[in-house]
Amino acid sequence: MTNSRNISDLHPVVARGCRELIKRMKAAGFPAVGVSATFRCHDKQNKLFAQGRSSPGNIVTNARGGQSWHNWRLAFDIFQNIRGKEWSDPRFFDTAGKIWEQMGGEWGGSWTRFVDRPHFQFTNGATIAQLQAGHIIPQNAVMPWEEDETEMTFRTVDEMPEWAQPGIQQLIDLRVLSGRTPENLDLDENMMRILLIVRNMFDRAGLLESM
Asked: Is 78 helix (H, G, I), strand (E, B) or coil?
């Protein structure tokens, strides 16, 4: 059974949103954001549904397998990664919820029937029934916050998408990016892709080792 905490296991549009939420939470004074759940398989969802019903524990979900947005890689849960304050600080979740809704996502803390403050999702307008019937969220889907961004830049390697981090870090280590400090890279995605293409060309030619 799968109950992932890996952001990369989310649909790409939600993964980008999750990373951007963490970035904005840091800017808002909450740097310790942990991710407790991303993708969850149907079997694990059914096991959670049984908790508090046919198995011991408290009820934690009203969704069976296939009925949770986690099962479709479109939702994640967060917590404050500070011992003793993981779930107890309402300011943490209120701030995250406000930011996420401004980004165009849906926050479980705004629900009325089953309030779920750690829960964040983006469905691209789809319903669970549509997903169960075979509807697929396009890989190139974007959230509203991305449409508003004219040019999103990344100041540090940690802020970059995971596909870019190893290659850009290698270029920093080789001093190819010596004109920029690791704390102030200011690279957009187009520039990162160009740099990685050049890096791959040098690598295939066996020139990286001589730098």
From this structure: strand
DSSP reduced 3-state for 163? coil
Could you give the 3-state DSSP secondary structure of residue 189? helix
Q: Is this structure's pTM higher than 0.85?
A: no
pLDDT at 149: 56
Scanning 32-122, the segments in alpha helix (DSSP H) are: 42-50, 90-103
Instruction: Please classify residue 55 by burial: count the beta carbons closer than 10 Å to its beta carbon, then call 0-12 exposed, 13-18 middle and 19+ buried.
Output: exposed
Q: d(Cα 63, Cα 53) in Å, to the nearest integer?
A: 12
**Chain-centre distance of CA 205, in angstroms?**
35
DSSP state of 92: H
Neighbours of 7 (CB within 10 A): 18
Q: Residue 129 is encoded by which pair of tokens? A: 């029934």
Look-up of token digits 């983006």: 122
Judge residue 22's burial from the number of C-beta atoms within 10 Å of its C-beta, 0-12 exposed, 13-18 middle, 19 or more buried: buried
What are the tens digits of pLDDT across the range 53-93?
Answer: 999 999 888 899 999 999 999 999 999 999 999 999 999 99
